[in-house]
Amino acid sequence: MTAGVRQETHDARRGRPAAGRTRMPVLLAVVALLAGVGYRLALLAFDAPETNSDEATMGLAALHIARGQDFPVWFYGQSYMGTLEAYLAAPVLALTGPSVFGLRLVTVALYAAFALLAWRLTLRLTGDRWFALLVVVLLALGSDRIVKNQLIAGGGYPEMSPAAAALALLAYDLCAGRPGRRLPRWTAWGLLAGLMLWVDPLVLPYVLGVGAVLVAFRRWELRGRAGAVLGIAVLVGAAPLLGQSLATGRNPLAAVLAAAGGGADAPAGWADRLHGGLLLGPSLGMGFCSPGNCATWQLWWALALPVLLVVGAVAAGRALRTGRADHVGGGGAARPGAAGDAAADGRVGAALRLALVAAGAATLVAYTLSGSAGRTPVESSRYLSCLLVSLPALLWPLWRAARRLADGRSRRPGRRVVGILAAAVLVATVAGTGYATYRAAGTASAARAAEARHTELVGTLRELGVRHVYGGYWTCNRLTFASGEEVVCAVIDDELRPGHDRYAPYRRAVAASAAPAWIAPTGSPLAARLDERLRAAPGSLDLITIDGYRIYLARS
Length: 556
Known about the structure:
With 556 residues, the chain is mainly alpha-helical. It contains 24 helices and five strands. It has helices at residues 2-13, 19-45, 53-67, 84-96, 100-126, 129-140, 144-151, 157-175, 182-199, 204-222, 225-237, 239-248, 252-261, 270-285, 300-322, 342-369, 371-375, 377-380, 391-406, 413-441, 444-464, 473-482, 504-511, 525-536, and strands at 468-471, 488-491, 517-521, 541-546, 549-554. Helix 5 (100-126) packs antiparallel against helix 6. It is globular.
């Protein structure tokens, strides 16, 4: 087996990959990709993960776009987070009508694109098909937080990872001097970068990191047509952001910083931020935890991640400094006539790995500094979703150490210990994410039951002829989207005061209604408040109870 591995590497460097040896990891990667897509489609069939009003807000934007009614630039109710998902889903909803399944067909496609791009990117950066297979297997798995990031069309998360991987892949081809289609590649890079600036600033560390590699390796090319094409493409991609900002005078970055900083109502102390950002965040955000919960033993990744960031940076920096290619090269085969040789390609790969590590570190630091890490670490760990793009750079030193051990090249005791530790971390990574995936899959039946209760609520309101209602934030837009705007809901808080309406016309429509109803989940503080009102004024409301909800009808 050792001789076979060495022969595969030797053949790849000479441009003669052994077909039998290289075909197997490719076929297994296809199986892993199909399994990942199949797992996510199965979750969709079970209405999992459970939808919410934020996803419904994106669905309503998609409906409005499909009807030509509105063309929103930002997520309704705020001046940041672009609505790319709504524009992608609009053609689907034009055919299916209001449908969470239709919304998520787009996000499943984005996941599939991410897994495929990650495979190609890993091959570019390392040239090792078996390692690329490991990356695809890890991306095929999906804990509760991971599948929520990838499947829920709540704004930004499903598209950021594939876009960041595509930017890195395009940058490799551009920096390695691959001939042909140079200007189209520069155009594609600029458009994607501009779009991501509009969609969500969370991906900005990856745009800047990969962009820095482009400048470092191709600055002479950027002085010509490539630079002009790139600049124009970035402006075109970011046009929605720029146009809206100029028209309204609002600064999207200021809105993002205000949202992340968190306000004076619930300040977060540094102890809470460090706990949420450095302990809970990495384990939750990268898929090692059970739904909404991290057991103590699942927090080991929080200790491993800083070490992997340092080791990954040192290894990439050393390869970049010495000019020695620490990878097989170019996806496993030499490219006759390519502008750059294996050593040059290795330097490009090392630079991009360093950029991915730096972007991952910047993402982690920015999240830890935010108030969200301290106040809502379980839910806000979604802000770390882009860290999955850095997996090839983080795990590559571990893989190399484990491969040396397997090949019998770690003869010194110190190297053998390192190889054993590296192999143990890789095994624990697969096992930990696999267990978290198993636990996430177990929540599918509960999600289906919750969707059935909500479907009954929509049907009951239609039967009663109710068209205008008041409800809590997590009830309103979900109800409005599910009914295709046949039922319009305005938000109230637990004290029956006006709440946060993301789409102002709904508030006006309900306010103009002669006898709006009230909706509250069973057992909620809002239901308790409405019950108090009913007891204080008997006969003022008619109460209808269904599974999971209480409907209060005003008597005319």
